[in-house]
Specification:
With 149 residues, this protein is mostly helical. Helix 1 runs antiparallel to helix 5, helix 2 packs antiparallel against helix 4 and helix 2 packs parallel to helix 5. The model has no long low-confidence stretch (mean pLDDT 97).
Length: 149
Amino acid sequence: MSYLIAIHGLLAVLWVGGMFFAYVILRPAAQPLETAHRLALWARTFGRFFPWVWGAVIVLPVSGYYLAIARFGSMAVVPPYVNIMQGLGIIMILMFLHIFFAPYRRLRRGVESGDFVQAGHALSQIRRLVAVNMAPGLITIFVALAGAN
């Protein structure tokens, strides 16, 4: 059980930490690059990061529900912090799915075709959505750590 808790926590930290890195570190560092290079960098970065997020999107709910039921016997009796994590996790997953299937797809298509206006618009959407999605991620980690004690 402790290994599953560790895997669950690590995936959450990798996902949220990846968003933090992208928004707070890479975004300002990439800003001075030429448009074509900056957009290609972002497309490659997301191409390497998003498979990890897909793993998190699949494993986190499965492991979370398993851990909750194993520990509390039923989802009907879990403490409030578990429901908060569940709700925020669902919001994060839905936002990621939108990012992946809409603006990220347009970013890749724009970079591949050389349509840097389309790619730039898509990257701007991703940037805003990542900033928004980072908030529930940080809150979820805080709630998990505070609620478990």
